[in-house]
Amino acid sequence: MKKGINKSTINKALNVIYKNGCIANPIFLLGMPGETKNDLKQNIAFIKNIAQKKNTIIYMSFATPHPGLELSKSGSDLIILSKDYSRYTHKQPVAVPKSLGRNGLKLLINTYHQLSEELGLTEVNPRIDPNYLKLIMGHDGHSVWRLENSNKRKRKQMEIEIKAKCEEINKIREALLDLGALSKGTIHQIDEYYAHDSLNIGKNNTILRIRYQRNNNEYGILAYHINLGDGLNNEYELIVNDVNTLKEILVHLKFYLAGTIEKVRETYNYKEFMICLDNIKDIGDFIEIEVGGLESEAHEKRDNCISLLEMLGVSKDSICNNLWLSDIALNNIRNN
Fold it and tell me: Going by CATH, does the domain composed of 143-329 fall within 2.60.40.1180?
């Protein structure tokens, strides 16, 4: 924040406070631009050291990019996770620095909760709203990964994926864990596909989808996909914090609900891949393997997805060529 304050300055100020018999209420911001894992580790040790002193109540907050601040500008190291300003309380993470890496958000949240509980400060540093955490940690298990790679998408990075029907999903799950894949959890998703006759959305290889969780339809993700070929998509996504109002807007704009898919999705990370195991209501079990890449890398990346599929014990003959959930939902089945 360019205040020119260091640990020595803070300790001197605290000593003055203690000598005068006052209570110190230092506030520490987590997730400042440029913060690294090593910085966070050092800050944790510093916070714990101060917390041991008498007459000290520590408040922990998250760096929050309020409009107009330097933090909110496009050149900032922060990835903005939410523009719902009612969340800008400094007690909920609405941004994460790219410098913390792929799991930076999870690291910030775990640090906040761990320190709050270890230091007995949950009253002034309460746990984060779990429903909000489900949103920002990813409706599809990986939304933050998508946001962290949005800068690559600006360079025509696109979604390259394969989907295959699978009969023995438990064996695939075991194979993923044996490879060392990281589980990102399981969620119950609703995908609603919207069409517009005059705009040809829902036709001609374009889809508009709202995705939200089965038990929490307040927050969702609006996605517009342009299919460029089998398993190759340009994808534009936007986090929304009022799904019902969004639906009303679409209806007023003459969009209509063309189909719905309901599924339970398990998501895993392995190297550069995102792997989803989907149990789709009334349809069956599928595995989806996705990776980001440039259009020039599409064939190579798709082959890499197929290689991983076979490593997991699924034959490439099971791949659903030219058939996606949007086709099923929109009753737009093409010939394989």
Answer: no
